[in-house]
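Re-run requested by the PI after the first attempt was lost when the workstation crashed. Everything re-entered from the original request form. Ligand of interest: zinc ion.
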Amino acid sequence: MEFLHDHEPRSRYYRSRVPLLVLLLAGLICADTQAQESSGIVHFPTRERSWDRIPSITILTAANDSRIPLVLEAVEFWNKTFAEIGTAFKLGPVEQASEIPPAPFLLKMSDAVLSRSPLPEFPETLKNTKGDLIVVLSDGDFVSFSTGFTKAGRVVVAIKSDRKSPLIYADYPNVARNVIAYELGHAIGLGHNNDPTKLMCGRPASCRPDAFRSNTEMYFPLTEIEKAYLLKIYPPTWSPSR
Ligand SMILES: [Zn+2]
């Protein structure tokens, strides 16, 4: 089966000088949970990246797309998480617009992200879209992705069609909800781990989005190390620099 999880380029954009240090720091910060999580959870290195402002969010979507509430709930999920861990950072106000980039362009973007190649030139409509974090709800068939920061300092998240596996609600309840939260997790700076019971499981682990399937609607959790990492990149004293 095709590896349907997304992902982001860890290459040029994410080549890291800090992952080991981050992991060491995270380990020190939560020494008590480290032991608890030493039972095989691996956090894969990712380049440190974080927002210097409260990102405004624009959803590019058809008017009645059933994924819109999932985006709103994912924003709530993350903001609740930020409040719980004690950072002042949060995701900003959400707007909606209808200029959805064409599916072939999103497929190209997805391929570029997966192959760690430069992103294709954005169509004018996307360049002109307001908002720091753009969430595209597409009807295209591609691997959902999050770009990391573009040259313009924004992040584009694109979610594939919910009429295609594994986002079809009837066959995969609870998957689209977690895929959207997961891509926003990348957009705020998290990388992957290898635990299929956690939200941010991903490459090089073999997790697939269908692991999110559940008859109970719920978000998969973060690891304690991820929470400590978020508090490191968005400390309690965090404030927007612009
Ligand atoms: Zn990923």
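Saved to the shared folder this time. Residues 19-233 form a domain with the Collagenase (Catalytic Domain) fold (CATH 3.40.390.10).
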